[in-house]
Write a structure and sequence with these properties.
The chain is mainly α and about 100 residues long. The chain contains three helices and no strands. The chain is elongated and about 95 Å long. The termini are far apart.
Length: about 100
């Protein structure tokens, strides 16, 4: 005759899971102060938020690198410098209200 355990293993497993869940909820309620104790808190990962923010940072870096390159070219070469000065003068006149 097989030896039977004193407790049902599935009940013990469910009880341990419930205790772990309650401890996790206590930890989350300490982390997020102001949430009602009767409400359940579910934490979700923010992978998409991190990916989108890193893409935005890389785009800003690329744009700034392009602007630095344009500025360096305008310092070295005369034609881009004159064109850039003309663009700046036109922009200042437009902003000041003397533009077209």
């Amino acid at each position: 005759m097989p030896k039977r355990s004193k407790y049902n293993t599935t009940l013990v497993k469910k009880a341990k899971e419930e205790i772990a869940y309650e401890e996790e909820q206590k930890r989350l309620h300490k982390k997020y102060i102001g949430v009602d104790e009767n409400k359940e808190i579910i934490e979700k990962s923010n992978y998409m938020k991190a990916i989108v923010s890193s893409i935005i940072v890389w785009l800003i870096i690329i744009i700034l690198a392009f602007l630095v390159f344009c500025g360096a070219c305008s310092l070295v070469f005369e034609d881009p410098r004159n064109a850039l000065i003309t663009i700046f003068k036109t922009a200042i006149n437009y902003i000041a209200g003397r533009g077209q």
